[in-house]
């Protein structure tokens, strides 16, 4: 796996001992294992033999072979017990109770059979002999009723208890999973193994639904094995007490064999259902494509483009090609006739099951045998066969569950790649007057790309200076912005922030010092208030702060006229509803304005951009913010609005005395705006070819001067 956890490092703070379950669940997971062997075992279990570099799809069943058995053992040894201990710690009493109740539940079927056999015996003696007593029959019936009542009570109590344990455990693991997802940065998430690991970890989290929900087993479901084992032991005990001869023992072994036989066939690759294993990466791709095309056909978001570009027939034919390919594959695997299928056709298990009646005949020959004993014998044999089958299935599911658990443990140990190791981490070096940036020979190639998007970038931007990055499309401006924002790393070179290597600054701390507008900014399907307030969540409930940010971003001009002002819900997709205006017209006249206000309101491109700029201003004025980085913040705005935004950026970056207190970097294609900056970086083919003030670059009469002349 691509991550490089250092075993010596403590990754999670130890949970304190909170009194409530909620705070326990909110605490961080103590380190389960930092052993790389879990990651290695998990990854190795996914490798497809003889196809180097190819892996099973996330969630696919691991073949039951020796290598995987060893991997399962490693995972169990390294993380199962630790994880169970952590989960047990959430509800120690209830979890212990759950274990006992499951064993008790396992014993109850044998008691049931025994009790019913006694009633049958009593009835038999009523019909055939005179040693029958009513009082004994009534006693047996009352005992049976009480037993049933107790069974019912035990069952509902055990189920409720189990649900409480599972729910808390589920919340706990879900919480860890979400927290870990939020910790991970873009380069880490770009790794396909990390994504697969998180996906399998998600499946593990979902398994906490109780009793094999989603067909998966959570560690708590392992108690099922205990319950089944105790059920098996109790039935065997009943059988042994009923029979003694070797003929009966032989029949018993025969019964067990009949239950185990299908699993043996399976073990040697003669299984009848290999669906998951035969799901090759190519088939998975076809399935994914089919699903994507189906979603496209159903999508409202892309409806306009589908209509205007006439994509309907293409979607339909592509979908049907993918679907047909899948159906053909499925049909092919179904028609493949082999030995197990033939054995299945012959219903071997049923045949063996029929033979189990032989000892019944043997018993019948014995004159002393009672009807109840026969019934008890018959039901016990059937229960043994059924329980052995269940036990083997549960063990197989548990075997698969171990790998999902391994994925969870491995996922919890993934380190965000941009986080510096604890021993190297430095605090952000504060600097009055903004952030000083020094780039030395920076280069970067996107994963999977052949060409570098950044090549040998060099510049120095002093604290409080402003820099405009200009250049042709695809010249690397946004990539440089991402590097400066520390959302991606660089391959070679050095980037100093206030004299300190940016790689030694924890990104979370560094990001507190920045406010930004991304080129492809987010549009949240929420209210104006939240769309803006998310720029500084600490002030999300402050009306005044949000209104100020809206004013600074120039969004007040239209927000005031929205149906519910800043509480208006915005339609982020733009096309999710037939049309907001249309919808308003469709609302029956009797509807109150309140209900029509619930319909998300659409915005124009420029209006959305003002919302994004307002979001950046929500945080930009904070004293801890040293860098304002705006990637084409005004590309959709008219010239007047554009100037206003840049005037505001200038105001916000200065103290009340007019001194620059924040460094400003902005990317723009409008060179009339770029000339406002102290420095301009002209980018071409991934590198800065010219750097200096507007006047200096004009004097130089190079690419910038040519671009400037072309634009004015
Ligand atoms: N995620 C990515 N994966 C691979 N290559 C990428 C990725 N993003 C950008 N690139 C490539 O990197 C190069 C620089 O892209 P970048 O977005 O930085 O250009 P830009 O100067 O901001 O362009 P524009 O002016 O059009 O916004 C381009 O060749 C682009 O194709």
TrEMBL record:
<comment type="similarity">
    <text>Belongs to the ABC transporter superfamily. ABCB family. Heavy Metal importer (TC 3.A.1.210) subfamily.</text>
</comment>
<keyword id="KW-0067">ATP-binding</keyword>
<dbReference type="Pfam" id="PF00005">
    <property type="entry name" value="ABC_tran"/>
</dbReference>
<dbReference type="InterPro" id="IPR027417">
    <property type="entry name" value="P-loop_NTPase"/>
</dbReference>
<dbReference type="InterPro" id="IPR039421">
    <property type="entry name" value="Type_1_exporter"/>
</dbReference>
<dbReference type="GO" id="GO:0005524">
    <property type="term" value="F:ATP binding"/>
</dbReference>
<dbReference type="GO" id="GO:0034040">
    <property type="term" value="F:ATPase-coupled lipid transmembrane transporter activity"/>
</dbReference>
<protein>
    <submittedName>
        <fullName>P-loop containing nucleoside triphosphate hydrolase protein</fullName>
    </submittedName>
</protein>
<dbReference type="InterPro" id="IPR017871">
    <property type="entry name" value="ABC_transporter-like_CS"/>
</dbReference>
<dbReference type="InterPro" id="IPR003439">
    <property type="entry name" value="ABC_transporter-like_ATP-bd"/>
</dbReference>
<keyword id="KW-0547">Nucleotide-binding</keyword>
<feature type="domain" description="ABC transporter">
    <location>
        <begin position="437"/>
        <end position="710"/>
    </location>
</feature>
<dbReference type="GO" id="GO:0016887">
    <property type="term" value="F:ATP hydrolysis activity"/>
</dbReference>
<dbReference type="InterPro" id="IPR003593">
    <property type="entry name" value="AAA+_ATPase"/>
</dbReference>
<feature type="region of interest" description="Disordered">
    <location>
        <begin position="1"/>
        <end position="28"/>
    </location>
</feature>
<keyword id="KW-0378">Hydrolase</keyword>
